[in-house]
Amino acid sequence: MSLENKYNLKSPGVKRLMREAFELASPTEEFHACPLDDNLFEWHFTVRGPPSTEFDGGCYHGRILLPSQYPMQPPNIILLTPNGRFEVNKKICLSISGHHPESWQPSWSIRTALLALIAFMPTPAAGTIGSLDYTPEERQHLAKKSKTWECQICGRIADKLAWAGSDGSGHKLTEEETSLIKQIALKAEEDANKSEARPTTSNEQPSEDLEDGNIEIRQRITITAAHSSVSTSLPNTDALLTASINRSNKDQLWTAVIWIIISIIILLVIRRIFLL
């Protein structure tokens, strides 16, 4: 069944996606995206790593999951190709993804999301959801390996992009897209600076082993935070338990008093009846 027969063409979201599918049908040097044959709300995409970075020359494939309320709500982006910047098979956190619906604008599109993803790749991870902090050498190695990566649905991803001199290679960015990419890069840099400026506590002493230092620090922070949370919750739990026991004891006492009073009244009534 074709997409035209499967979906309500009067739906604004369907109309928008059909139009975007038509506009993105021809691949460019930077990216290519298209919906699955049987699902207009799931797209597969391929982007080329930004030049003059550790991702230069790499080809990265992924999925775009679009909500039924698109374009009023943002898409979710999942990368499938190992890249050293984002975790694979996990929704990544971008200002134009489902993790930040408050910053999404309906005028943005799948093309905008892909350009933003490319712009985000060389920025610091800054501890965001789905981020990885590999070394430049590791990322360069993954960029080389990505050229031979294949998707079970789309095939060899390197063949999906246009190359210099081809018909799709001359597509230029609009002023709005260029401005958006600059804003994204600036925001990512600000987030990284904020992350680095956070004060170091006594629980965050650097490890002597530089190679495993970050891992050990993260483990100590996690364990300390968990221990603090447990120890904070214990007094509250004890207090609640004590209060509950006290209330139970009081209830039992009042119940006993009431039964005694009722018993006395019954005895008095019986005595009066027999005396009459």
Automatic annotation (TrEMBL):
Transmembrane helix among keywords: yes
Record PROSITE patterns: UBC_2
One matching Pfam family: UQ_con
Keyword annotations of the record: Membrane, Transmembrane, Transmembrane helix
InterPro entries in the cross-refs: Ub_conjugating_enzyme, UBC, UBQ-conjugating_enzyme/RWD
Location of the region described as Disordered in the Swiss-Prot/TrEMBL record: 190-212
Gene3D superfamilies per the UniProt record, alphabetical: Ubiquitin Conjugating Enzyme
Transmembrane segments: 253-274
Coiled coil regions, renumbered to chain: none
SMART domains listed in its UniProt record: UBCc
Domain UBC core: 12-162
PANTHER family given in the database record: UBIQUITIN-CONJUGATING ENZYME E2 (PTHR24067)
Protein known as: UBC core domain-containing protein
